[in-house]
Structure prediction request, 594 residues.
Amino acid sequence: MPTRSDILARATRLRMTFEAAGAQVVDPPLLQPAETLLDLYGEDIRARAYITSDALRGEQMLRPDFTVPVVQMHMREGAEPARYTYAGEVFRRQEHDPDRANEYVQVGYEVFDRNDPASADAEVFALIALQLRGLPLRAATGDIGILMAAVEGLNTTEKRKSALMRHIWRPRRFRSLLERYAGRGTVPESRKKLLSTEGALSGSAPEIGKRRAAEVDARVDLLRADAAMPPISEHELLALEALMAVRETLPYAIEQMRDIAVDLPAILPALDRLEARTAAMKARGIDVDTLDFEASYGRTSMEYYDGFVFGFYAEGHPGLPPLASGGRYDALTRQLGQGGEIPAVGAVLRPDLMLMLEEGKS
Amino acid sequence: MSLKLGVPSKGRLMEKTFDWFAKRGVTLSRTGSEREYAGAVEGVEGMELILLSASEIPRELAAGRIHLGVTGTDLVQEKLPRWEQQVEELEPMGFGFADLVLAVPQFWIDVDNLDDLDAVAAAFRQTHGHRLRIATKYHRLVREFLNEAGVADYQLVDSQGATEGTVKNETAEMVADITSTGETLRANHLKLLSDGLVLKSQATLWRSREASYSAEEKSALKALLKGIEQAG
Prediction:
């Protein structure tokens, strides 16, 4: 196993490489205010991050990643365009698998640039791939933006679309919502009963708590209105399912998705962006013809990514976390930007896993 | 050393545990004054009774400081990550039944199941500017349950007692609590979600996988298990 000083030395070298590529070194604090992260990720983050507290600052989190503090710093004081790099520990609480590290070193490279997102995507991917050359890895790529465009373009109500959009990163709930809106599956008895009523409903139970009767009535009205809407059409549903199942080398994936776009024309601009990115990657010497593309990649673990996503995995080590992962997170800059926003893309490397794999090879 | 059995030190749970063991030929009793947490065991050689708070028993089992313990499934699963590897379930004891359930105000006629809850949580956050609060003392169990179900936009707030009252006091919008009959929930104008059963719990006899067992302790355990098996 690589020693801690080996890992830190490699991390420093990688950060210097990124610095040489034009990035400015940043060093966010280890302790992050918990509130921002809880707002972003919800309660689930408590299972994944270490939380501590004091009487003055309240709950603090040992940083579970660098992206959020780097985005906050950039939105507060960054000049444009900007490239940042960092190296340091992140902390992940482990409750199930004792073999997974709860503390490890990440080295990252983040690009905030309004010009030519395709080129920025390719720049980050190529720079990461360069650091990993020679290792027996498989790259996975995807694009959450295509799925989001497909949902946005569905021929149904805004309410349904935003409910689906909210659960893009929770595939199971996404599927159950989709089936409900498509009129598949059965309507629960309680819902049928509720829908058989009319007007404002006042029961015998007292109104308690902060959620008021007016909110209950408003939702009942919404449910009635929704029940009157036609289901999502069969051909749109099938096209969406076909889209989520696309898993091919990049050129074939693009071909398949162009076919699917006949039924989901709203994804065409996103496919154009994918092709522009592919061309930019090719121009940087990436062998795009053999690169894997999965339309559903990145939907389970990378909640803030909303465009290009990628990861590098060790061949023959299916249990090992990715050696590198990254993607585009434009929406995160909007959420943390207090009115501002900027297209952004970045990635992190795991020097510990790189060293481990190199040792195994020699 | 003797085989250490941890039993809840107070109330009905202790009495019912004593009854349960008595039916299996093992007499447990408290010794000394009411305030003293000491006990005696008759019927099995080399066994020792330790009286503890029910909520401490999972931790003592996991630390291997007691060999056997009586406590609810709920407490074991909440307090011990990867509990199967730390303790073995020997015998469900048929009392102390309690379900960990999700409950919302009765007047929420638009909420029957987890799908509804998720939709309401999203709307609530938009309206009120904070996530929908669920009062509970079972943080891990509830979080894992809701995560598995894909419910978002909620937050857990800690409540170590009188949890049902938190909604009325507006410190939470709903609760996740232990109930045996649902009566306390109903009295507080709360109702269960149809698919909101997080866990079914009852008093259970557990064996620590972490404790070490001497020859003497092993034979005491064997004798005890034989008595339980014959009564079963």
Observations:
- The interface with chain B takes residues 38, 42-44, 46-47, 95-96, 163, 166-167, 170, 172-173, 176, 180, 188, 190-191, 194, 201, 203, 205-211, 213, 215-216, 219-220, 223 of chain A (CB under 8 Å).
- The first strand of chain A starts at residue 24 and ends at 25.
- Chain A has three domains: 1-136+315-362, 138-182+233-313, 184-200+211-230.
